[in-house]
From TrEMBL:
Residues 39-56 have a biased composition (Basic and acidic residues). This is Unannotated protein. Residues 1-66, 269-293 are annotated as: Disordered. Transmembrane segments: none annotated. It comes from freshwater metagenome.
Amino acid sequence: MPKNWGSVARRGAHLVRSESPKAKNPAPVPSAPQEPQDEWIRVDGQDKSSPEADAPKRHRAAADVPGDVAAAIRRSASDATSYRRERLVEQMGKAAEAYTRHRYEEAARSAGRLAGEVPDVPEVRELAGLAAYRSGRWRPGATHLEAYRTMKGDGQYIPIEMDCQRGIGRVRSVSTLFELLRQESPSPDVLAEGRLVLAGSLADRGKLGEAIELLESNGASKPRRNPGERHLRQWYVLGDLYDRSGDVPRARILFSMVAESDPNAYDVTSRLKDIGPTRKPRQRKKSGGKRTA
């Protein structure tokens, strides 16, 4: 499964679950880039002489699944009939297509059922976990992604696992997973996402100061000449935290940094309108008359 699946899911992370009227709902995704340029379902590189190429036409969706994944599904379901094995591969193809078309609940149901029959195929658990996460199904999302990580030794989805645990309310699990993430030496993008989720968990418990310090101490508010999506997300989340803590001037600065880079990112334009423009200091009126001795 390509890494861009993870980036799509992380961009959908519910990083701001504030109870304040200003941020009741998760912030929308930045205007660009929203989705990866390529889809997971593909047929390139398939060996035409392989058994997969000879699958009946009524199971053409199976050909859209990468050969190694299809083979793994068939091996896992070795006790099933040949017909059933092909149907399982076809089910994987349909679940993946539903995911790429943003039909996450459909993908979660289909991939979840498939994971019940072939639980030892990591790509199935990966898809089931990401689809469950995008559907707001925190428990199955956490379960499937943990299984994927255990089987593959791949920590790229730890921030998503953290957010699932956050949704369930398992505070300690969020912190434990973040420490695990740090030990993995992940990419800057993945580590930043982990910090954002941890900051959100702290904010959920009213620890706004700690959440702000976590991000500030790691340079999250630093201006960038050519900011990437990671920087926009950090600025926005920090702006939200400052706004909720009562530091409106600081929140305005950070929201403005986001808006200058991408006016359509999240709901930053409306947030700036809500907090209002910078207030100019009042000037004292000069007395028109002269003082008398």
